[in-house]
Amino acid sequence: MSLYNISCEKIATYIQNGSYDNSVYRLDSKSSNKIYNLLLEKKNELTDRISLQVAAKFNLSEISFKNFPNSTIYVEILQKSCLKSLCLGNLKNIASFFEDDQKSINICYLLSYYLNEDSRRNLQTLDLSGKEEFSTGWTVKIGHMFPSLTTLSIRGRTLYKKEFLVVCQNFPKLISLDISDTNVQLLFGISYLIHLRELTMQNLTFLSHFVWLDLFHLSGLEFLDISRDKLNKDMKTVRQYVDCGMGLSNLRFLDCSGTDIDDQLVQCLQLSHPKLKQICVFDSVLQRSTIQSAGMMTLNTATLGSSLNCLNYFVARRKEYAVWKCLKEINTHVYNTKDDELNHTNFINCTLRAMNTFSSKNVGDEGIRCLVQISMQETMKMPILERSLALKRLSNFIVDLPSLDSLDRLGFHVAVWQAVFNLLSNFPNDSDCEKIWLAAMGFLQKNHISVYCQTGVLTVLHMCTTIMTQDQLSLFAEKRPHMLQLFLALNWSLNKKEHNLTRCIMHIIHYLTKSSYEACKYLEGINFVSVLLDCMRSFNNDQINVQCLAVMVNLARHLEYKCFGIKMRLDFYIFFSASFCDTKKESTYYGCTYIALLLISSEKQNSNCWYWDDANDLLMENCSNYLPSSIAHYYKHLITLDFLHDILKTTKGIGLILWALSTIRIYLRSISKISRQFKCNLIFTITKISCKKQFETTKIEEVGKIIMANYLLL
């Protein structure tokens, strides 16, 4: 994305939120057109406030309602602009204002009302495509109204009697004409358009080759489209054209998609058209042909490269149905193409261009499938910009991802979330994570647990959770429906004995409880500690145990240990005594850490703790047996060297002192530099403790000597 495009995006955002309402400015024509379209894409229809800003400060030269509803709200914008290009789009919202007695639309009155004199005099491109019926005689009046018109599209219009002849006679300056999907059955009169270089007449049906003859008087014609949306083997379109026995001397591009084109007809066309350089044979018997004619490029879907060329052509010509079918072919190619052979930049840019050009669901869904397909492969080989663009498009898609009413689309949903995960893991960006996190949580809320647990959405949620900041997470954690959904998912995972899924959910819950008091308060209200104990009992897995203990620490810290009643303490004490006394388990140390924090809290609050002696004995027996190489990131925010030093100075519990010394030892293993002052203070405190009579028969002196000899006295 260029700096210019980024600037236009920002300006559109500021106009939309009202930041520029009181600013004095006047945009140039190019920027006006660009930003105007961006505003429509953001809102689909402009508000009155934005319309006033556009009318007063924009200098529009192009307006299109092709993908947006046309309504009377745009009248002032149109009347104050000097247009060179106008596409009216669907007229149903304004038709009633311009109907004549026969309920036909008086298109001439509509255009004269919408456009000022400058626009009518300078308009070069007019798109009147549609199915609505126009008032009689409109072709003559339009010709007089727009003297500078060079490009005209009347796709889909019904032309009565000799109206096509009248069109040709009244628009002598036309360079480009589109009469696709009309009822034109005779090309007589087209020779009047002596300046015509582009002619599009898709889906027309002629009775014989004689109907074509007047076409060959257009010696300047360079582009001709005689294609059909769908292949009809009974239609002999190209055969009729060739049977005329004539050629167009300057024709360079011929679109024969969906027609009876074959190898023999291609050879005939080459002989009669000396300058023909490209021929499109998509959706024909030559669609996957790898045979290339000398001196001419064949656009089909034989390879991924030719398919992308074909797609670019269809997008440029606004052929929505062909774009959709072409994307389906491309999706198949990507599936069968090795990652090393892919041009990621070209592929993603072509796909996104198609999706941005058309607003239809068919094109959007097929484009998403293409992005998903390529993102399922090795995304590290994607350039960073393309990776970012693909992730942004997928993140927009998953916001409105429908619920899984049946398992028929399960494979697609699995692929979508896997693609998001792949892109996110190789291109972490917290600006995308917020939207993706909310979309993933919304998907959880729309679907049954047994369904969404199969899609991989929780791994995406976990990835976002690890990337986002604590401030971002705290906003999400405070919403109870989010915590409830994770609680339900954890219960389901426990019942199904899903080890990896449980670890994933516990990791998410840990991050959320770490950042939010409200989340902890809610979980305490639903007796979440009992669930954590069940989790540890069910799996007896060291990593899961450490995660559960980390969540318990978060709950205790945020709620100041008030929620931990006698029953919980007794349950935990019994469970710890039975399960955590394995000297080789990391969870043993963190179980001791949790007990130590409970005892420290009890000391600070001067509260009677009936289990003090037993808990202190547990710490004495276990906390120094196995020490991890470093403090897990779950606990670093809570346990610091200064905190531990304060414990040594104030506590009377032998177990607590041993735990504090053991934890200091872990820290000193991984810290290369500590202040001289801290070393001196710590040496003094350890020496003082070791000299006390009540500590003589304990391990305190032994651990203290190890710390001083290995770390403090060097």
Structural summary, described in words:
This protein has 714 residues and is mainly alpha-helical. The chain has a domain at 1-60. Helices cover 56% and strands 4% of the residues. A ten-stranded parallel sheet has the order 1-2-3-4-5-6-7-8-9-10. Helix 22 (499-515) packs across helix 23. 39% of the residues are buried. InterPro entries: LRR_dom_sf (IPR032675), Zyg-11_UBL_adapter (IPR051341).
Secondary-structure blueprint:
Layout: H1 3-17, H2 29-43, H3 48-57, E1 62-64, H4 75-79, E2 85-87, H5 107-114, H6 117-122, E3 125-127, H7 138-145, E4 151-153, H8 163-170, E5 176-178, E6 198-200, E7 223-225, H9 237-243, E8 253-255, H10 263-272, E9 278-280, E10 297-299, H11 304-316, H12 320-336, H13 344-357, H14 361-375, H15 384-399, H16 410-426, H17 430-446, H18 449-452, H19 457-467, H20 470-477, H21 480-495, H22 499-515, H23 517-525, H24 528-539, H25 542-558, H26 566-579, H27 586-604, H28 612-622, H29 633-636, H30 641-650, H31 654-670, H32 676-690, H33 700-712
Helix pairs in contact: 1-2, 7-8, 11-12, 11-13, 12-14, 13-14, 13-15, 14-15, 14-16, 15-16, 15-17, 16-19, 17-19, 19-22, 20-22, 21-22, 21-23, 22-23, 22-25, 24-25, 24-26, 25-27, 27-28, 28-31, 30-31, 31-33, 32-33
